[in-house]
UniProtKB/TrEMBL annotation:
<dbReference type="GO" id="GO:0006260">
    <property type="term" value="P:DNA replication"/>
</dbReference>
<dbReference type="GO" id="GO:0046872">
    <property type="term" value="F:metal ion binding"/>
</dbReference>
<dbReference type="GO" id="GO:0035539">
    <property type="term" value="F:8-oxo-7,8-dihydrodeoxyguanosine triphosphate pyrophosphatase activity"/>
</dbReference>
<dbReference type="InterPro" id="IPR020084">
    <property type="entry name" value="NUDIX_hydrolase_CS"/>
</dbReference>
<dbReference type="InterPro" id="IPR000086">
    <property type="entry name" value="NUDIX_hydrolase_dom"/>
</dbReference>
<dbReference type="Pfam" id="PF00293">
    <property type="entry name" value="NUDIX"/>
</dbReference>
<keyword id="KW-0378">Hydrolase</keyword>
<dbReference type="GO" id="GO:0044716">
    <property type="term" value="F:8-oxo-GDP phosphatase activity"/>
</dbReference>
<dbReference type="InterPro" id="IPR020476">
    <property type="entry name" value="Nudix_hydrolase"/>
</dbReference>
<dbReference type="GO" id="GO:0006281">
    <property type="term" value="P:DNA repair"/>
</dbReference>
<comment type="similarity">
    <text>Belongs to the Nudix hydrolase family.</text>
</comment>
<keyword id="KW-0235">DNA replication</keyword>
<keyword id="KW-0460">Magnesium</keyword>
<keyword id="KW-0234">DNA repair</keyword>
<feature type="domain" description="Nudix hydrolase">
    <location>
        <begin position="1"/>
        <end position="100"/>
    </location>
</feature>
<dbReference type="GO" id="GO:0044715">
    <property type="term" value="F:8-oxo-dGDP phosphatase activity"/>
</dbReference>
<keyword id="KW-0479">Metal-binding</keyword>
Amino acid sequence: MGGMCEFPGGKVEPGETAEQALIRELREEAGIEALAPIALNSKTVETDERIITLHFFMVERWQGEPYGREGQPSRWLDAASLLEDEFPPANAEMIRWLKETHC
């Protein structure tokens, strides 16, 4: 969404697991190779247009130096710094969960 912060990610392709999609998306969007990602949580969100399932992973180890490969600015934030109103509404519950469990 324009002007908002977003977690790296994208759609799970046919035949892919959520973890495989995460690894591919981080390679495509941030130029890193995720090593041993840990599944944290999944959340299904219903909008007027569609149903979206968000899968969240923790990546503590990776190869490469992260940067915005698609031209977008990028920055690291700790969970305590995440502000719900800076992200798309579908992420609000996950941001609250991250703050409750990782701060």
